[in-house]
Specification:
By secondary structure, this protein is α+β, with helices and mostly antiparallel strands. The protein contains seven helices and 20 strands. Bound molecules: zinc ion.
Length: 391
């Protein structure tokens, strides 16, 4: 059985102990007493040193606490030191979570059903069918007020049967370890917490996600909150510099730019379409007239013919007695257009040819489109087109 020193003194960072047992070739050791916190109750494990070895993981084995080491140690007396910066950060996040859950319950009746305290961000899931940004801001304001009120956070041991006023009823029996935030919250918890709410530091609520019937609130406390706010400011400032504007004007400027961009894109599409129509007319003028007196044009390109090519083909076929075939891409795509007086029914012909070549497509007598399965089928199509026109 390991005596857990963190239960009664969360600020104990250096201590002496005895290694009473070692396994895994000395890399997994058990102490008679330990201030190392094992991953449990949503809080991450501590790191630090035992004698000359680094503590990589701390595992709760119910009766005992196992310390996983970077180097083997033998039973005997050892000096131990906890990585205090990491531990204190965990104490801030964990205490901040108690306060946040208490305020969410007090202000809106939201119950905390799940807690995740992570390396970078932490979350609580609350029973809120809807939670809007204004409520988030109100909770955040009240939590930070309670931080400034610097309320005492204390630990007591009470019998489960007689422990009244807990935020969440405990399923445990026997003696409960109860963490109290003066005048605000009583929760059964085995984790490590700061002494007063002031030590939690600033609390910043961030993302809000829906998870089935609950709302997931992301939060950061203490130095993490300051680092997040700094990173957010730097990002916003970088955007503001691009606009040579104040940070507060960035959202409005982005909206205005998006509107301008959409208008410019609409203009560009309109001009491109006009250009394609003109190009179609020019192609008609330059297309050779064959023995039957029909202007026949064949365009093979590397790229699939798209919207602009279709407009060019349609414009081309506005001329008298003409037909145009466009093929391109891999696998090939086809556009076929013909004037009404060409004697060449585009849709019907293309449908027949594509059926023979394993492709698909069709259209009207003046305009048809389709696709072919492979490059060889494209060659087959060109061969049929040329044979039809005797070219
Ligand atoms: Zn706790």
């Amino acid at each position: 059985m390991t005596a857990r020193l963190y239960y009664d003194d969360a600020y104990l960072a250096r201590f002496t102990a005895q290694i009473v047992e070692a396994s895994d070739g000395g890399r997994r050791v058990y102490l008679d007493r330990s201030a190392f916190y094992p991953t449990s109750g949503g809080q991450l494990h501590d790191r630090g040193r035992i004698a000359g070895a680094q503590v990589l993981d701390v595992v709760d084995e119910e009766e005992r606490v196992a310390h996983v080491l970077s180097a083997p140690l033998e039973p005997g007396p050892v000096e131990c030191a906890i990585d205090w910066a990491r531990r204190f950060d965990h104490m801030q996040q964990h205490s901040g979570q108690h306060l946040l859950s208490a305020v969410a319950a007090e202000m809106f009746g939201f119950d905390t059903v799940s807690v995740h305290l992570g390396e970078e961000i932490s979350t609580i899931d609350v029973t809120a069918r809807s939670l809007d940004p204004a409520q988030m801001a109100a909770i955040e304001r009240r939590v930070n007020e309670a931080v400034c009120e610097n309320r005492a956070i204390t630990v007591s041991y009470e019998e489960a049967a007689g422990a009244a006023g807990l935020r969440k009823a405990s399923e445990r029996t026997g003696t409960l370890r109860i963490v109290t935030i003066e005048g605000m919250d009583r929760s059964a918890c085995g984790g490590t917490h700061v002494r007063r709410t002031g030590e939690i530091g600033p609390v910043l609520l961030r993302k809000l996600d829906r998870v089935r019937d609950t709302a997931r609130i992301e939060f950061v406390c203490g130095a993490r909150a300051v680092a997040c706010a700094r990173a957010d400011y730097d990002t916003l400032n970088a955007a503001a510099r691009q606009f040579c504007a104040a940070a507060a004007d960035v959202p409005g400027l982005i909206a205005a730019q998006m509107e301008k961009l959409a208008a410019a894109d609409k203009d560009r599409r309109k001009l491109a379409a006009e250009l394609a129509v003109r190009q179609g007319r020019e192609l008609y003028q330059t297309a050779p007239v064959n023995a039957q007196g029909v202007r026949v044009l064949e365009i093979a390109a590397a790229e699939k013919p798209g919207e602009m090519e279709r407009l060019r083909a349609q414009s081309f076929a506005q001329g008298a007695r003409c037909a145009v075939l466009m093929v391109g891409g891999a696998p090939p795509a086809v556009i076929l257009a013909a004037s009404a007086d060409s004697g060449f029914p585009a849709g019907e012909t293309l449908k027949k040819w594509l059926a023979e070549l394993g492709g698909r497509g069709g259209g009207t007598a003046q305009l048809a489109q389709g696709s072919l399965p492979a490059a060889e089928a494209g060659e087959g199509l060109l061969a049929r087109w040329r044979a039809h026109w005797g070219s």
